[in-house]
Amino acid sequence: MSLVANSNKEVKLSEKALARIEELKSRFPEGKKKSSLLTILHEVQDENDNWLSVEAMDKVAEVLSIKPIEVYEVVSFYSMYNQKPVGKFMFEFCHTSCCVTRGSEDLIDYTLNKLGVEEGQVTADGMFSVKATECLGACGYAPMLQLGDYYHEFLTPDKMDKLIDDCRAGKVELLSKV
Ligand code: FES
Questions:
Q1: Which of 92, 111, 120, 170 is a Cys-bridge partner for 146, taking CB atoms 3.0 to 4.6 Å apart?
Q2: How much is the pTM?
Q3: Residue 112: inside a domain
Q4: Each residue of 61-115: pLDDT tens digit?
Q5: Both 109 and 156 in a single domain?
Q6: Is ligand 1 within 6 A of the CB of residue 107?
Q7: What are the residue ranges of helices labelled H in the chain?
Q8: Residue range(s) defining the domain that contains residue 101
Q9: What distance in angstroms lies between residue 52's CA and the mean position of ligand 1's atoms?
Q10: Which of 108, 135, 153 most suits a substitution to test ligand 1, by most atoms within 8 Å of the C-beta?
């Protein structure tokens, strides 16, 4: 199975994103513009429904004047970049030692069953997906997940029920205002 997916859509970046990309590139001298790649990928992912299609990665290669393979290899290395479509609400569960010890694997199974999807799939309504990820640096609050810019901690099945209900009710912030 391919790790990358085509969207079959032309990627058009907004004026705001293009301006931000130019500002990021300007922080580095000629010949070193590639150093802005990670941040630019976040910008483009944010504008592309939170995932990076082949077309989106090619667009990044174009704006940085680098080869597409240089973008693909970075995107495939870091788990914060999504190589397939994801739900509007993507639960990124930590499944490293502290969280596993505190029940994250059962919680992942519970959430997948409740949503009726496998890991990496998107619910039919496009609302949710679940991803297991490595330590998110909040081990003292295990088990935890990241949703957008926010951490949700000391999770239990009841807390997951409430979080899912709140997402459906439009009560959950994804992006911090900072
Ligand atoms: S082990 Fe889960 S946040 Fe570190």
A1: 92
A2: 0.85
A3: yes
A4: 999 999 999 999 999 999 899 999 999 999 999 999 999 999 999 999 999 999 9
A5: yes
A6: no
A7: 15-26, 37-47, 54-64, 68-77, 97-101, 104-115, 157-168
A8: 89-168
A9: 26
A10: 135
